């Protein structure tokens, strides 16, 4: 399943939030989306999830314009974990995650054991099985974030879009979520602020002021030159003596 943006533009009250963004999310790849605050990452993820339409250009899913697929068909294929997504408070964690099954249910196909299995598996994958019966309102910020990811996984998408999924998470759960995303075997697009975490992606797309600056493997894209131009920081590359992997360290530009 291939999701493509062709020259996508989006403006609000005359201000361009995205300009001529073209990219292809290849089947099975882990694509990182990086850029300074306000560079358009969330705007692009929402359009990719079929929430709203671009003012210019088009998004396609397997070559067909996304908006022609219809919201239910899109929701069976694409799931979005938005930033600080809300959920009504008087609901258990299991029921909140079960909402992810909605696109698969209709008058002819009611809730079944298959749906139970999807929900149980999604909870287990984010380490929340023990909290399944808890009231949503009692969860910590990080637990909520993981429950949102579980809801998206229960949706059983082929493309998963995540907006800063490691926000609120302690370091162990940050690593756990990134491992989980990397091991899903489906296409993922993840907006990230931690550029060392972005190094784990197959490719990264770099946005600045709504324009795509670079797209490619992180080791070739995240050069000190690009990081200075896009983020106004001086980056130094270090090598982890343990495994030889590349690390980035940052200082303000003098
Ligand atoms: N509905 C809207 N009306 C006006 N401006 C908007 C609207 N939605 C987004 N913007 C603006 O568009 C720009 C891009 O926002 P977006 O949330 O996509 O950035 P981002 O890269 O995800 O930022 P962050 O890293 O801070 O989450 C921001 O300047 C934001 O204020």
Automatic annotation (TrEMBL):
UniProt xrefs under CDD domains: ABC_Iron-Siderophores_B12_Hemin (cd03214)
Pfam families listed in its UniProt record: ABC_tran
InterPro entries recorded: AAA+_ATPase, ABC_transporter-like_ATP-bd, P-loop_NTPase
Domain ABC transporter: 3-234
Gene3D superfamilies hit by this protein: P-loop containing nucleotide triphosphate hydrolases
Nucleotide-binding keyword on record: yes
KW ATP-binding (keyword) present: yes
Molecular function, one GO term: ATP binding
SMART domains in the record: AAA (SM00382)
SUPFAM superfamilies per UniProt: P-loop containing nucleoside triphosphate hydrolases
Keywords attached to this entry: ATP-binding, Nucleotide-binding
Family matches, as PANTHER family: ABC TRANSPORTER ATP-BINDING PROTEIN, HEMIN IMPORT ATP-BINDING PROTEIN HMUV
Protein name: ABC transporter ATP-binding protein
Source organism of this protein record: Paracoccus nototheniae
Lineage, uppermost ranks: Bacteria, Pseudomonadati, Pseudomonadota, Alphaproteobacteria, Rhodobacterales
